[in-house]
Amino acid sequence: MLNILELQKQLVEVALPSGFEKPQGRLLAQWAKPYVDEVFTDALGNVYCHKKGPGKRMMFPAHMDVIGLMVTFVDDKGFLRFEPIGGHSPAGLIGCTVRLESGVRGSVWADATADIYKHGFGDVDIHDLYIDIGAESREEAEELAPIGSVCVFDAPVTLQGDTLISPYTDDLCGCIALLVAMEELKDTQVENDLWFVFTVQEEVGLRGAKPAAWDVQPYMGIAVDVTRTGDTSGDIDGQRMQVSLGKGPTVKIKDSSVQCNPQVMELLRKAAKAAKIPYQDEILLAGGTDTAAMQKTRAGILSGCVSIPCRNIHAPAEMVSVKDVENVGKLLAAAAKMPL
Ligand SMILES: [Zn+2]
To answer: Range of 105's domain?
Structure first.
């Protein structure tokens, strides 16, 4: 059995944001190699892991890019101004430690003139925030972090009971679930032709999965991502969700980018029941996934998604259940064996 904590630690250590996924792509390709017939990368950086079968093609994408920040301007005091890469809560960024690609660390803080000092942290404009890398001048800062530099959360990866607390479980744990599925299938000859794909640039608009699905041209696609849960302190904007942490993978019915194809949902529920894997139905009201990009490729592709229930999505301390991650992998392996 793969050690999910260990894999997550190694991925988080090297992971870079959307458009810069090479380091995590390299690791994932290396780990997948023993389980499949071929591994290759396309022009955008999508990593394809192909387990050959004589039957219909099935594609399993999980995005390997993570959210981050990009330095856009260095001011006279040597503070770094930035733009978000992917969806951030500006208030949640204050006080975060970030790591630049070069290894330089910085702390995110807010301008003395920012409204937060008058009105609290509720209404934060991301453009009032800056990264302090301890530079003493503009020149020194520009040397350490020229514009275009990207950074990620620098936060611990820990396990507490079955709960993994870590940045970027979205969607590095989805990538790990693909590895679990590949390992499960390692000694099995499967009828379906299987394509596990670590995709790029999901967080900036589902950009990698579309060309990947065009290339693979699957009969059916099943994406893996995280989903919000309803077992938190309360509903966000009155949006109620039934999903809970630790109660199993979810079979997505819809999110704001996609209505999943009924055939795919049925196949997933059947596979879960046959393999005795607990599952939950999921309706995610806000947020999109690679599922949508796949579905709208070529003349349309039968598409669905299995999600990992996750609390505090896009925070430096997201939470998932390790058991859920393992069961997502097992459910994918069971689905891969279903006749199409
Ligand atoms: Zn995601």
So the answer is: 68-153
Distance from residue 32's CA to the centre of ligand 1 (Å): 20
The answer, as to whether pTM is greater than 0.85, is: yes
* Whether 72 and 211 share a structural domain: no
> What domain count does the chain have?
2
Based on the residue annotation, tell me whether 326 is a catalytic residue of this protein.
Answer: no
Decide if 272 contacts 334 (C-beta within 8 A).
yes
215 and 329 both lie in a single domain: yes
HSE value, Cβ hemisphere, 13 Å, CA-based, for 99: 16
- Asked if 270 contacts 135 with a C-beta cutoff of 8 angstroms, the reply is no
Distance (Å) from CA 274 to ligand 1 centroid: 28
Give the tens place of pLDDT for each residue, 14-27: 999 999 999 999 99
**Same-domain check for residues 195 and 62:** yes
Q: Which helix (H) or strand (E) holds 38?
A: strand 38-41
The single residue of 184, 202, 203, 318 carrying the catalytic annotation is 202
Cα separation, 281 vs 247, whole angstroms: 11
Tokens of 250: 């979810």
Length of the chain: 340
* The predicted structure's pLDDT at residue 31: 98
